[in-house]
Amino acid sequence: MLKITDLHASINGTEILKGLSLEINAGEVHAIMGPNGAGKSTLASVLAGKEDYEVTSGTITFEDQDLLDLSIEERAREGLFLAFQYPVEIPGVSNVNFLKTAINEIREHKGLSALSAKDFLSLVKEKSALVALDASLASRAVNEGFSGGEKKRNEIFQMAMLEPKLAVLDETDSGLDIDALRIVAGGVNALKSKENATLVITHYQRLLDYIIPDFVHVLYDGKIVKTGGKELALALEEKGYDWIKSAE
Amino acid sequence: MSGTLIDFCKQLEPTQLKLPTALLQAARDGVEFQHHFPTTRDEAWKYTRLGRVAALKLSPVKINQPANPLPSSETIDIIFENETWHCAEPITGLHIDFSGALDTTAWNACTLQGHVQHINALTAQGGVAIRVDANTKIIKPIRIIHRIQGEHTGLILHHQFVLGNHASAQLEVFFEGTSQDTYANVLFDFFIGVGADLHTDMLQQTNGTHYGFHTQRIYQQKDSTFALQTLTANTHFTRNDVEVFSQEEGTHTQLYGAFIGRENNHIDNHTYVHHTAPNCTSDENYKGVLSDKATGVFNGKVKVYQDAQKINAYQSNKNILLSDSATINAKPELEIYADDVKCSHGSTTGQLDQQALFFLRARGISESKATDMLIKGFMAEIVGTVKSSHIQEALHSLLG
Ligand SMILES: Nc1ncnc2c1ncn2[C@@H]1O[C@H](COP(=O)(O)OP(=O)(O)OP(=O)(O)O)[C@@H](O)[C@H]1O
Ligand SMILES: [Mg+2]
């Protein structure tokens, strides 16, 4: 589904990703862990197409297309979803209104007709229940005045609404209480299928008790330096990152 | 500089209004004394050039005949177009008059200032005088439409709206037209009686090279409420002067504005709130979005006079520039001579929120739609205060 090969990316002339390679297949759950500043969010932003970053070399293919050739919105319409580490507040733009536009633009891209108002509303009902997002939050301005945890739930709500092929969740677990963590993880698991894949970026092994990864990668200084199974997360939790650095 | 003020007035008809002689004389003295249109050296016209206006060749609209009464609809309509005016049938407690006779008791409050008001006094072709009886609630909105048609048309009107004590009404005002080289100088005097309440929404949406001068003067008596929403959409040249005289205790004033400019549009909003009485509030919020080479001006002045204690005056101006060639000149001014007041003002100008734009696009929304959404969201707090459904609709199709 996604294949990243020797990716180098920089911002304002500073190289952040320094030869990163990663492959994700349909049906898989991957986790990326790594110290602060390693480049995890940078990877997520480059995948989503943020224009501040310059890809200096390497390739990314997504569903047999050159991802780097696509605009931000085309990537989303092709099924890429990024749950932001720091969701933005957009006063005056209602959550459901923007989602309706997003869904219909994605449907149009797929050659489907627009959702009726009725079908859209029942979808909102179903998916907000899935992540236990208060119905009033769904209709408020995007993230405006939301608590930290509510913003994260809102990201997963959007993911549930848009049903992406590949979801990249950037520290969606941070700032969530235990109950919310379970709910969010439950939402992610409920949406899991053989056709889609998930990439979770996290600092905490705890999340991976709920979202069981097939692979755990360590991103360090702009590269994937180690890949293992679920047990790698446990080892990291216990020993930190130093042993990997020294093993390098 | 081309034509003098006197030459400019000569192309138009002498006033059809029955103005007090002293006022008329003051206007004559004014244009004679000032002689030329003001230049950018004049503080009030610092960012707005009048050379093109001075050079306009105009022929006046002669407003002489009322057409057949308009059918009743969900608004009480007054329409100025093609040398005629139309008016809906009057209803109880509401008086609509086109004779040019203004309520002179109310006139005691007024003086004339600046060339726009002088030209208006000397060449007004008419106007509507609306009066609502005391203790009367006019439920249906009153709608005034100005259609400025025909090249080189000059439309000069002086309207008066007198709201009796404890009366209330809702007003919608439209300016539309598509002709080239047109001029409008339309002045409203609002007299808001004790405990009365007037809500006014104004949409300025003229296409073509139209030069629009809009003056609103508001005189508020004790415990009255006045709200004005001024919405300016892609007009070639617009100057709005809103001046509020809060004359007695307990008044509340709301001045909101949204302006959108593109191409070479020039939109200038000047407001001046005089707090001469204590225990009053004023709330001002103007928002602008400019693209291409459009220019905007916001000059908001609040003056709190010496004995006007316990004033709460809030003023905000926020602008978004969508292009490097768009400019805004914003200047909030506070003058406070009382000591127990709460005043705040602020002005910010920036670009569209790039994080928000990225977020929306990352959800699959095209750049242009995402931009429209953010602009609409930016304007939402202004648009949300508009009561007129006609203007809501117009803004909806304008903002997407
Ligand atoms: N505009 C910028 N200019 C220069 N360096 C930047 C810029 N933006 C980010 N960086 C740097 O890029 C590096 C990687 O940042 P990134 O946000 O990808 O880290 P991260 O792995 O997500 O960290 P965290 O765990 O704290 O979220 C950091 O050192 C950061 O300071
Ligand atoms: Mg990060």
Residue stretches of chain A low in confidence (pLDDT < 50, at least 5 long) are: none
Major sheet details of chain A: 6 strands, mixed
CATH superfamily membership of chain A, which one?
Answer: P-loop containing nucleotide triphosphate hydrolases
- Overall shape of chain B: it is globular
Write out the distinct hetero groups bound to the structure.
adenosine-5'-triphosphate, magnesium ion
Question: What structural class is derived from the secondary structure elements of chain A?
Answer: alpha/beta
From the N-terminal CA to the C-terminal CA of chain A, the straight-line distance is 29 Å
DSSP E strands of chain B, number: 21
Spatial gap, N to C terminus of chain B: 42 Å
Instruction: Count every helix of chain A, treating DSSP H or I runs of 4 or more residues as helices.
Output: 10
CATH architecture of chain A: 3-Layer(aba) Sandwich
Task: Give the strand order of the largest sheet of chain B, numbering strands 1, 2, ... along the chain.
Answer: 2-4-3-7-9-11-13-15-17-19-21
Q: Please compute the radius of gyration of chain B using only Cα atoms.
A: 21 Å
Main sheet of chain A: which strands, in order across? 6-9-10-3-11-12
CATH topology of chain A: Rossmann fold
Number of domains as seen in the coordinates of chain B:
2
Strand content of chain A: 25-35%
Note down, in words, how this protein is organized.
The complex is a heterodimer of chains A (248) and B (400). Chain A is 40% helix and 29% strand. Chain A is α/β, with parallel strands linked by helices. Chain A has one domain (2-247): Rossmann fold (3-Layer(aba) Sandwich), CATH 3.40.50. In chain A, the strands form 3 sheets. A 6-stranded mixed β-sheet of chain A has the order 6-9-10-3-11-12, sandwiched between helices. Chain A has a 4-stranded antiparallel β-sheet with strand order 2-1-4-5. The model of chain B has no long low-confidence stretch (mean pLDDT 93). Chain B contains 8 helices and 21 strands. Chain B folds into 2 domains: 5-248, no CATH class; 365-400. In chain B, the strands form 2 sheets. In chain B, strands 2-4-3-7-9-11-13-15-17-19-21 form an 11-stranded mixed β-sheet, covered by helices on one side. In chain B, strands 1, 5, 6, 8, 10, 12, 14, 16, 18 and 20 form a 10-stranded mixed β-sheet that branches. Chain B has 400 residues and is of the alpha/beta class. Chain B is globular and about 65 Å long. The structure holds adenosine-5'-triphosphate and magnesium ion (MG). Adenosine-5'-triphosphate (ATP) binds at residues 11-12, 14, 16, 34, 36-42, 85 of chain A.
